[in-house]
Amino acid sequence: MAKSKSQPADNTHEPLAKLLKILSSPWTMLLLHRLHMEGPKRFGELKRRLGAISTKTLTERLRMLEAEGWVHRHYEPTVPPQVTYTLAERVLELDPLMVELDRIAERWYGRG
Amino acid sequence: MAKSKSQPADNTHEPLAKLLKILSSPWTMLLLHRLHMEGPKRFGELKRRLGAISTKTLTERLRMLEAEGWVHRHYEPTVPPQVTYTLAERVLELDPLMVELDRIAERWYGRG
DNA sequence: CAGCATCCAAGGTGATACTG
DNA sequence: CAGTATCACCTTGGATGCTG
């Protein structure tokens, strides 16, 4: 649509690049997808559901998403401690995206 | 749509993971976005528009997308040669996704 | 112009061990 | 349970130089 002319264009500063940088870091989408589809989850459960992810990576992603304001971390100082992660309200805007992704994934790679 | 049950679940084999693996490799989304918004493009123009990408990476991405059937490569043996890349028809299904991404990027990171 | 071949640095990841 | 701290590795991307 936009028919801007020929610019050197460093995408790095554009909103889309910023968003994609977050979304495209490994595991992030699958992580968000889980929380989106299945609701709030504790660390261990999340890790189990994601399969091959390491605790380190999962922690990093969660910390990043927390810093970005995409997820909330709720710490319950019981014994043993319980930490629950919830999607921030704003992230619900990603819903159409998730649904679209699911649909396309199914159509393109679903059966064979 | 959820697979239900409590499985160790190695997402690696699922359609969504497959799709995300492609989409989340660096530059891929921005690349597709360009082709989507501005139509068929030649290698050099594409490179210039993407900014900081290297020829190596751009080539790799294009080759990958070609192998996946996402883009078509048209070689014109003129002097100098012209190679034009076009989105495959199926990739047009990504349209809603692209639009959504743009909207969200603008809303979340558009103004500061 | 549109790549390809190398080399190399950087960062990300996983495995492992340990703590509150 | 929910992490943190290390370490070693290994892929990945960028820079450079060359070709048809």
UniProtKB/TrEMBL annotation, chains A, B:
UniProt GO molecular function: DNA binding; DNA-binding transcription factor activity
Database matches in CDD domains: HTH_ARSR
Gene3D superfamilies attached to this UniProt entry: Winged helix-like DNA-binding domain superfamily/Winged helix DNA-binding domain
Keywords attached to this entry: DNA-binding, Transcription, Transcription regulation
Residues annotated as domain HTH hxlR-type: 14-112
Signal peptide: none
Record's keyword annotation contains RNA-binding: no
Name used for this protein in its record: Putative HTH-type transcriptional regulator YybR
Species per Swiss-Prot/TrEMBL record: Anatilimnocola aggregata
